[in-house]
Amino acid sequence: MSKSKIPQEMFQHVVNNALDFLGQSIAELQQKPKYSVIHFHAAIELVLKARLMSEHWTLVISPKKQADWQEFTQGKFVSVTLEEAATRLEKVAQSGLGDKQLKSFRAVTKHRNQMVHFYHAAETEQAGIQRIQAIVKEQLSAWYFLHDLMLGQWKDTFKEWKQEISEIDAKLREHHEFLKVVFEELKPKIEEQVSEGYIFHTCPSCGFESDRHPDESDSLYESKCLVCGLNEQCILIECTECEEGEALYRGIAEAECSSCGHHHDGSQLLEKFVDDGAAHMAVKDGGNYPFPLNCGECMCYETVVEVADSQYLCTECFAVSDTYGVCGWCNDESTNLSEDSYWRGCEFCDGRAGWDKD
Ligand SMILES: [Zn+2]
Ligand SMILES: [Zn+2]
Ligand SMILES: [Zn+2]
Ligand SMILES: [Zn+2]
């Protein structure tokens, strides 16, 4: 067998295993919650490893060990942990996990470790129900992010499994039933908050009408689902097409109009905030309006707008920054600048050091 064929087969094997573990985890939830958590955790790790393998086989091997082709093909190797995988996805594959994704995966890992070491099957019925509810919340939000990565950011890696991924999605969503009690209990609180002016949408993770948003547009805020805890950076703008509906961006630079369905991406956000900002500047005193800036997170050119004082949003990757600076070497404005940008440059130039080297 050729060397290049083996990683491809192992890669497929890893993805199939990940999906298999997910399926098991869903089936085991009620009868064997302990195994459900363990298998769910294994599935997350395998998906991250598969993504790393699609880059290069050595990336799944623990940084503490020497990569060895023989050992790898025999499956005798120590593989990366969740944290190590996350670091490599960011640093090497340049396709990292966001804070929320990582946080939600870490919660599963933590729970898994507790289950392995401290779980006792004999518990009261009430404690058992609460445990299952806690697991469902955790799995729904971890899946929300995982599924989003597999069908979005990493779709080239996982496109062959699109069908299976959608089937798992449907099955996992049936678990939503376990959270019905939580939703029922929250109803009075939700009604109270509606009367205070909050708006509740259907949560994209747990499916209940418990996703709380303030009634405001053109500003960045954090939504929060009262049932499953999902929270995201959001911004609501008037539809640029029909001017009747609104487009709600949640965590990513894509949104659909609530009325005409028109698809919005980062360009509408960019245009809106740059126009508003420039108009505001002109009224004030003219001067130099530096926006849009370059994004130091995703390295996109001129995509960052000012949405409020000290709130700079990238309309491409949706990262929010509270500062920006001017590169000491190339004079371009960007977020995420290092202290000695004159010497080290920014994401867009190599600075003085790079100049000297040539
Ligand atoms: Zn929810
Ligand atoms: Zn519209
Ligand atoms: Zn960006
Ligand atoms: Zn620069």
UniProtKB/TrEMBL annotation:
Source organism superkingdom: Bacteria
UniProt cross-references to InterPro entries, sorted A to Z: FdhE-like_sf (IPR024064)
Protein name: HsdR
